[in-house]
Design a protein that fits this description.
This protein is α/β, with parallel strands linked by helices. Helix content is about 35%, strand content about 20%. Strands 1, 2, 3, 4, 5, 6 and 7 form a seven-stranded mixed β-sheet that branches. The longest helix is centred in the middle third of the chain and has 20 residues. The termini are far apart.
């Protein structure tokens, strides 16, 4: 097989519903669902979209909305807000600072052009005692963190703030649209998880770069008994909330005024 044939993008359409309902093997390989055809997302397909986060999980989740082309530009702003803030305020202020920092950095980027959308997020885990947990600092801290999350009653909360910004074409102050959201998910660890299992999990290093020290989308799921809320919020980017924010900032203000006049 030539290199040209290897590199050629697949042209097969997704299998029709009829063939799936009929049973048996599909005649073509299912290469995944087609992208969501929504005006707000379609307007961003060929535009510069920035994800102000180095998290590969957020990048993967954003791709599920058809924005896999998003450019990763992590914010360099220190995450040093006082822990005395409520979890809600902590993640919201941190995510807003991330978005604003990258916005100011990239809005006048002559080489690549101004971004059409900037998205930032921040996730924290809060123990049942109200202790705010971010990423583990060492192996010993990692193990202690997981023990604290497991021990009775085994419940903790995960907060993720999402902030979406889009420059405005008008000269209206402040020159951009900004929308934000904070979601909460309650997670219950399995109380029968042993210290040996926690040590083995820490050794995998899967949770070393994650708030709370575990990844529910990976091996960390073996520690979890159940959740109340959205799974992707625990992973780091609640997609339903993210889509709503994108739709809000991608709707020009004049459209809102016209809609009000029609009512």
């Amino acid at each position: 097989m030539t290199d040209e044939k290897k590199d050629k993008a697949p042209s097969e359409a997704p299998p029709p519903y009829e063939s799936a309902a009929a049973g048996g093997r599909p005649s073509v390989v299912n290469r995944g669902p087609l992208p969501l055809e929504l005006p707000s997302l379609n307007a961003l397909r060929d535009k510069r979209v920035i994800l102000a986060s180095a998290s590969p999980r957020r990048k993967q989740l954003l791709a599920q909305l058809g924005l896999g082309h998003a450019q990763v530009i992590p914010s360099t702003v220190p995450e040093n807000l006082p822990k005395s803030l409520s979890p809600f305020e902590y993640v919201l202020q941190t995510a807003t600072r991330k978005a604003m920092t990258v916005y100011r950095q990239e809005i006048d980027n002559a080489a690549q052009g101004e971004p059409a959308l900037i998205l930032a997020a921040d996730t924290v885990v809060v123990s049942h005692l109200g202790v705010l947990m971010e990423k583990p600092r060492s192996e010993a801290h990692h193990l202690a963190m997981l023990k604290a999350l497991r021990d009775a009653p085994g419940l903790h909360k995960v907060y993720t703030a999402v902030v979406v910004m889009a420059p405005l074409e008008s000269a209206a102050s402040p020159g951009y649209a900004l929308e934000s959201s904070v979601e909460e998910t309650v997670v219950r660890f399995d109380l029968t998880v042993t210290d040996d299992l926690l040590r083995a999990y820490v050794k995998t290093r899967e949770g070393a770069d994650k708030a709370g020290g575990y990844g529910i989308q990976g091996m960390g799921s073996i520690l979890v008994e159940r959740i109340e809320g959205t799974h992707d919020n625990v992973v780091g980017l609640p997609l339903r909330a993210t889509l709503r924010l994108i739709e809000k900032v991608m709707t020009p203000p004049e459209d809102d005024e016209e809609d009000e006049g029609d009512e």
